[in-house]
Specification:
CATH topology of one domain: TIM Barrel
CATH class of one domain: Alpha Beta
Radius of gyration: 27 Å
Shape: globular
Strand content: 15-25%
Low-confidence stretches: 332-338, 537-568
Largest sheet: 8 strands, parallel, barrel
Structural class: alpha/beta
Number of strands: 14
Number of helices: 20
Helix content: 40-55%
Bound molecules: zinc ion
Strand order of the largest sheet: 1-2-3-4-5-6-7-8
């Protein structure tokens, strides 16, 4: 049975994906991930449990103001408790009160769980499902019914498991979600079961698959389900999830689109897949797996000379797809052109005149290669990337210059500690020495730097650090460990990321801090407006007419700061 309904990609990175051990993502990071998922073109984003904790409540509140295009947001909950009515059930009330138009509620379909875990009889379990779905429908919600342990339940008592699904479909669920919660079902059985469910319920509702990877088959199970008529797939970016993870959308999406001909995403959006995968990894502070299918750095790498020469003749000889389709690139020397095209595109998107300065892309690419070799990573460090481009264009020089810093850490008897930093910094021809305390060395350094430059750059007080991530890069490196720090900053309106790399955390933090503050000050001074994105040689004539005496190559930036300085 084939369905005419458009296919649905349902992302649960922000709910099930967060169950991965060690995963800790702030509210702002979750919002940025959600926006990126919407840009990728997933149809539903599951955000978590509204009102279950302050963090999720805050997340739903912040997400409401974001432009997510046509992507719908789902809130997660469960069927009503036993012996109550849906309108008196706190978790269902929370779903109704949440603005998210989709409610996904989990419930039982395995009689073993119904009797041993839930401790209700089979008939009451059916009422719990039916009444909960109907109640949410009456409150205007679209409902997905998550059938927990469905495949185990079906293996034990197929008729009861199906009756649970039918109850949800009868009550108006948009989708019944077949969950392989233990993650150990094999594709053959998934195929058999999904075929039956689609035959029985496919004309009433969508049939969705939610697979875990404990048997190494999460992606295969998802594809098999679609082959047998499922028209909605749940998964997470990079396969994040507890234990062995959830089904990896980064493999499922291109498999569906490129190999099975399922129209689940546009060509343009598919080309954003690799960047999205790395962006999410970066925000979750997880090292991207270089060997991940489709989006891994080495997914299309070719080492053998024979491969390379054959590839030059015809890329199909050693590549299963054109990597550009998923926004990846083959990592071989012959492919530098692909890298160049990507960089050129990125610089152009930022609004810089790449066409007027044809060598610019090469210079940026060379710098990037060196930097990335040292451990820099620009996926989530948009500010550092743009500053790198600007320095290659000969736009403004550094706003301030560090002469030295010193940090003293005082460890006290009671176990507490206090850090004190002294910074010697030059702004123009002035030298400032400032000392500040902080709850850690980086915090103290940040405060001392701000104190040092505030007289010349009062806007520094509008820039706040919203996030700070550290990664030790010792993998694949013969030399000593290197530290990479990524800082997210905001001025309340815009948000940007910067990166620093060093032999230790303070050195790396300082570098990221300087980029972050420099970018924020440039932003406040209007340096990113289009007419300021041209090097002095291209705009000197017009700028000089307005502001004589301005230092060369700054496009009037210092002049603007001086004006603001006097005004305060
Ligand atoms: Zn799950």
């Amino acid at each position: 049975m084939t369905s005419a309904r458009p296919f649905l990609l349902y992302d649960t990175t922000l709910r099930d994906g967060m169950q991965r051990e060690g995963m800790s993502v702030s509210v702002d990071e979750k919002v940025r991930i959600a926006v990126r998922l919407a840009e990728l073109g997933v149809h539903i984003i599951e955000g978590g449990f509204p009102a279950s904790n302050p963090k999720d409540t805050e997340f739903f509140r912040k997400l409401q103001g974001q432009d997510l295009g046509s992507t719908r947001v789902a809130a997660f909950g469960m069927t009503r408790g036993k012996g109550t009515t849906p309108d008196k059930d706190e978790n269902l009330r929370a779903l109704v009160d949440c603005w998210a138009p989709v409610s996904c509620i989990v419930g039982k379909t395995w009689d073993l769980h119904v009797e041993k875990v839930l401790r209700v009889d089979r008939a009451e379990n059916l009422r719990m499902i039916g009444e909960s779905v109907r109640y949410l429908r009456e409150q205007g919600k679209t409902v997905h019914y998550d059938a927990e342990h469905f495949f185990d339940g079906y293996a034990a008592h197929p008729e009861y498991a199906l009756e649970c699904l039918r109850t949800a479909a009868d009550a108006g669920a948009e989708a019944v979600v077949l969950c392989d919660t233990n993650g150990a079902t094999l594709p053959m059985f998934v195929g058999e079961v999904v075929e039956r469910v689609v035959a029985e319920l496919g004309n009433m509702c969508r049939v969705a698959i939610h697979a875990h990877n404990d048997g190494g088959c999460a992606v295969a199970n998802s594809l098999m389900a679609v082959a047998k008529g499922a028209d909605c797939v749940q998964g997470t970016i990079n396969g994040y999830g507890e234990r062995c993870g959830n089904a990896d959308l980064c493999a499922i999406i291109p498999d569906l689109k490129l190999k099975m001909g399922v129209d689940c995403i546009s060509d343009e959006d598919l080309a954003g897949l690799t960047e999205t995968a790395h962006f999410v990894a970066e925000l979750c502070n997880v090292s991207p797996d270089p060997h991940q299918p489709y989006v891994g750095l080495d997914a299309f790498a070719h080492k053998g000379g024979l491969h390379i020469s054959a590839m030059e003749r015809d890329p199909r000889t050693f590549q299963h797809i054109d990597p550009a389709l998923v926004g990846n690139e083959p990592h071989v020397l012959v492919s530098e052109l692909a890298g160049k095209a990507t960089i050129k595109q990125r610089v152009k998107q930022l609004g810089y005149p790449v066409d007027e300065d044809p060598a610019l892309t090469d210079r940026v690419l060379d710098r990037l290669k060196d930097k990335e070799h040292e451990g820099y990573h620009y996926e989530a460090a948009d500010a550092s990337f743009e500053l790198l481009v600007r320095s290659e264009m000969g736009l403004e020089a550094e706003l301030f210059h560090l002469e030295a810093f010193r940090i003293i850490i005082e460890q006290r008897e009671d176990g507490s500690s206090l850090s004190e930093a002294t910074v010697k910094v030059h702004v123009g021809d002035e030298r400032f020495i400032e000392t500040a305390e902080g709850n850690g060395p980086v915090n103290a350094l940040d405060s001392a730097l701000r104190a040092g430059i505030e007289r010349r750059f009062p806007h520094v007080h509008d820039i706040h650090l919203v996030n700070y991530r550290v990664r030790i890069l010792d993998e694949d490196r013969g030399t000593a460990a290197t530290t990479r720090v990524i800082i997210d900053s905001s001025d309340g309106r815009d948000c940007w990321g910067s990166v620093g790399v060093g032999e230790n955390i303070v050195e790396a933090s300082w570098e990221a801090l300087v980029d972050s503050i420099t970018y924020g000050l440039l932003l406040a001074a209007g340096a990113f407006e289009d007419d300021m994105k041209r090097p002095a040689s291209l705009c000197r004539a017009s700028a000089e007419a307005e502001e004589p005496g301005r230092p060369p190559g700054t496009c009037g930036l210092y002049g603007r700061f001086d004006t603001q300085d006097k005004a305060e």
